[in-house]
Amino acid sequence: MERDSSDEEEDRENLIPQNDRRNDGVKSPNHSRVVSFQIDDLKSRISGTASRFNKWYLFAILLPLVILILYFTTDLKNLFQTHISILKNPNNASVNRMRESELRALYLLKQQELELFKLWNYTALVNNKSSLSALNSNNDNSGNSSSLNKITMLEDLKSKLFSQISINRRIQGVLLSSHDSGDFVDFNGNYSDASFEDWSRCRKVDQRLSDRRTIDWKPRSNKYLFAICVSGQMSNHLICLEKHMFFAALLNRVLVIPSAKVDYEFSRVLDIDHINKCLGRKVVVTFEEFAETKKSNLNIDKFLCYFSLPQPCFMDNERVKKLKGLGLSLSKVEAVWSEDTKKPKQKTVQDVLAKFSSSDDVIAIGDVFFADVERDWVMQPGGPIAHNCKTLIEPSRLIILTAQRFIQTFLGKDFVALHFRRHGFLKFCNAKKPSCFYPIPQASDCISRVVERANTPVIYLSTDAAESEIGLLQSGVVWDGKTVPLVQRPTRNSAEKWDALLYRHGLEGDAQVEAMLDKSICALSTVFIGSGGSTFTDDILRLRKDWGSASACDEYLCQGELPNFVAEDE
């Protein structure tokens, strides 16, 4: 230890002289102390630099952690969102000008809305007058067609006005969304009539059933009217049957439904007992019930023929033979007046009572399909007879349920139904002036306009047209740039259950059942397009009125238009 101590002193002594020799110009007694302090200061500086360097490393490590914590714990949207009060700053001139412009725009929109409503109310007034004019017009078909065309044009105008008013209100709503409505004028005032909000271009038509003119049908139990229907197909026979019911009610007689051996099998398509239930008494019987009541005394005591031309009661010898084949004894067939099926005259209730009242038990008046008796009374919605149902003659319950199941499966709530008659219609229509047979492209355009008006995505097609015509029609029916599908009833498929009721009751494959099913589907549609001159269409329109499904957009195909091409006569 002593050696070490002497060595340190020797080294220090040797060091000082060396330094003295290198710094001869600096002589101070405190020189050795200054040198010592400089060495300590150097060490201190090195230690401070290292400390600052370690702090930067620590800061770089901690900063991302702090950012992550802030990101997950702070609502940055609210943190950086400009407070709405800045926008409401009254000292901000540009914002105030913007708000004044918005309020001015709202004022102008309100003025536009008022003017649109004035025009709306005017069209409603004109429309009501036109409707009354059409109802009170005479039987001139061209006059009726002109009135209906005017009504259609007015309805289309109202539809456009409705669209513009709706757009106007949407714009007002957007502008008002940035304002406190309580601080400004009330822009929410409704200056329209109450019906505006519920208005639709293809709205349901109010049939005013409470204003219906009716007659009570209270038949004498032993007095019968034997129905005879000869003209045309099933639809004609149903119309004939409906008119027979009116005659039976006027004459206080029970109506006898024709036998399937001489007419259609009505029991397969109609619910006969439904008629009796609607009136609460026995007013119609089947031929089998009539035969059971009369037993061996099956007679038609008197023929009082409504039509005399082309032959009395519109019956040929073949029909007489069929009636006799039922075991019926027939009296002489005679006409009560001169009446031609081609030119029927208008008759009144008094005319009928004067000519057809009889004390005989069983009478027949022949086919009355063409009879024109109290037309407005007979053709009114619900029919001329007082009852507790929507209508007396309607498809059977099985057919109606099947129609509803088909609609649920393939169509949905909103659809257009089209009865597009073609088979045998070309010659029939061209014999009329003007013709009612339209080229496919023209028909497609007419259908497309109705689809646009009705705003419906699908069409149910009831037709007897050939596949070539259906294909061309399908390609031409376009709305909003898209082809509108034409849906037809598919052939029987056991995997589909919508028609299971008909199958289980043995009604599948029956042409008349299928025709009545088509009528039911069409009668339940949102909008219906029919074929002018077709009794199939007329029966659908009757059902729609009676069921309350008739629409303001219902019309005949290309109503008010002439075919753009008509072939010459043979």
From TrEMBL:
GO terms for molecular function: peptide-O-fucosyltransferase activity. GO terms for cellular component: membrane. Belongs to the glycosyltransferase GT106 family. It is found in: Membrane. InterPro entries: OFUT2-like (IPR045130). Residues 1-12 have a biased composition (Acidic residues). It comes from Olea europaea subsp. europaea. GO terms for biological process: fucose metabolic process. This is O-fucosyltransferase family protein. PANTHER family: GDP-FUCOSE PROTEIN O-FUCOSYLTRANSFERASE 2. The keyword Membrane applies. Residues 1-29 are annotated as: Disordered. CDD domains: O-FucT_like. Gene3D superfamilies: 3.40.50.11350. The keyword Ion transport does not apply. Keywords: Carbohydrate metabolism, Fucose metabolism, Glycoprotein, Glycosyltransferase, Membrane, Transferase, Transmembrane, Transmembrane helix. It comes from the Eukaryota. Its main location: membrane. It is a single-pass membrane protein. The chain crosses the membrane at residues 56-74.
